[in-house]
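SEVERITY: medium
COMPONENT: batch folding queue
REPORTER: lab tech (J.R.)

DESCRIPTION
The queue accepted two submissions in a row. Attaching both inputs and their returned structure tokens so the on-call engineer can compare them side by side.

ATTACHMENT 1
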Amino acid sequence: MPGSRSRVAERSPLFLGLARPPKYLGLPVGYLVVLALGVVLPFIWTKSFVFFLVGALAYPVLWIVADKEPHFFEVLRVSYGAVRSTKNRALHGGDSFGA
């Protein structure tokens, strides 16, 4: 019965708590970094408080998206950082690693 053991682990509150990403202000760290960079840097560059309003409007949207897919920015970081494009990308419309 090894299959039933993994199902119990997936429902365990301890397993779920240890497997979820760390959160600050209710957002996973990746989402919070994107929100902070999208608000603080434009504010510093323009000295316009409008960006804080944009941040206040973007926060609930990011919170809903993070609730559906908490590892979105981590997946983007890994997929774009680890996979180089191949020479035949233009020929096939994507990367082709076959022989």
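ATTACHMENT 2
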Amino acid sequence: MLSGKGIMKQIDDMIDNILDEVMSKSTRMKKSRMMKAKGKQIARKRKIALKRRATPEKLKSRALKKARDIITKRILKDRKKSELSISGRERLEKRLDKKKTVIKRIAKKILPKVRGAEAERLKKRGDKA
């Protein structure tokens, strides 16, 4: 049996993995049911987590996501990801999968900026208290 932290880590990992990927209709329905059941718990845990410093792994995943967004913008030019059809998103995912090494390289370059943004966020949070 997993503890509360273990379950939340599992859910966070699932959400992070799924947000960028194209889902089938059955997967989308399954996630919908899961979020309906766990949504309030996840929101509460997220609010608590925002009060703490992000772990190095979390910072790395944020940098990867930002790098992925940079490459996505470069590929799509002036179009938005939300305007793409499902097949268009699938093609985009395949192109992004081919560019994993480039994404990792960009993520490594922007990691200090992500760390700085985290420090700034924590500083602002400290000023409010």
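NOTES FROM REPORTER
The radius of gyration is 17 Å.
No errors were logged for either attachment.
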